[in-house]
Specification:
223 residues; 81% helix; mainly alpha; Heme Oxygenase, Chain A
């Protein structure tokens, strides 16, 4: 039996994923030593990212060839919206941020570029291309949560809670659903589409690295 398409994608992006594992943002988060202003910046950018990400998932629903796939994307988009809705009651309140402050956050340079990439693929690409573009967001966060869960910090409490969120089975269930969908679509794709899918997966993986980097450097627009 040949290599599954998802495994091939992960292997092709392996160098990027290793760099994510070694990033100081995640190493310091795991140790409980990450400065809170960097974590707050990251959470705020993640918050403004989620709405656009949910809309991209809705476009996946529009491209779905059957009710089963449509149901998956509708459920996943709703899940992203619910995360955003519950944000203020959890991480936002813990960080002392009002809903008005959250909604006033401007997208950072990498956040804007990453969303632009996903929207471009969602508008002009096939369903397989769209899944390849969004899969790193699912998969990388799940892997990070699972890896950091062992010896997770007791303090700050919010760091431990963040890690536990992404290590949990409730998060991993949709991760596995997207991986299975990727394998099914990859098996049916021709050579040129597989090449496009691979490119989207690698670029999204790079943006995931840059999302951590943006938070660690507290990046803002230069002008």
């Amino acid at each position: 039996m040949g290599e599954k398409f998802s495994a091939r994608l992960r292997r092709r992006a392996g160098r990027i994923w290793h760099a994510i594992d070694a990033h100081p943002f995640l190493r310091e988060l795991h140790a409980g030593t990450l400065p809170m202003n960097r974590f707050t910046y990251f959470i705020l950018q993640d918050y403004v990212y989620l709405l656009d990400f949910a809309q991209v998932l809705c476009q996946g629903g529009a491209k779905s060839p059957d009710l089963e796939t449509l149901e998956l994307f509708c459920r996943h988009a709703l899940g992203a919206v619910e995360v955003e809705r519950s944000f203020h009651a959890s991480f936002g309140e813990t960080l002392g941020l009002s809903r008005r402050q959250l909604d006033a956050v401007a997208k950072g340079p990498i956040t804007q570029a990453y969303i632009g990439h996903l929207q471009s693929v969602a508008r002009g690409g096939s369903l397989g291309e769209l899944v390849a573009a969004v899969l790193p967001c699912y998969w990388i966060y799940g892997e990070v949560g699972r890896r950091l869960h062992k010896n997770r910090p007791r303090k700050p409490k919010i760091y431990r809670q963040w890690i536990e969120t992404y290590a949990a089975e409730t998060f991993w269930r949709p991760v596995r659903e997207q991986i299975r969908l990727m394998d099914r679509l990859g098996a049916a794709a021709n050579g040129s589409e597989k090449k496009l899918m691979t490119g989207h997966f690698i670029l999204s993986s790079r943006y995931e690295f840059m999302f951590w980097e943006q938070a660690y450097r507290l990046e803002s627009w230069p002008v």
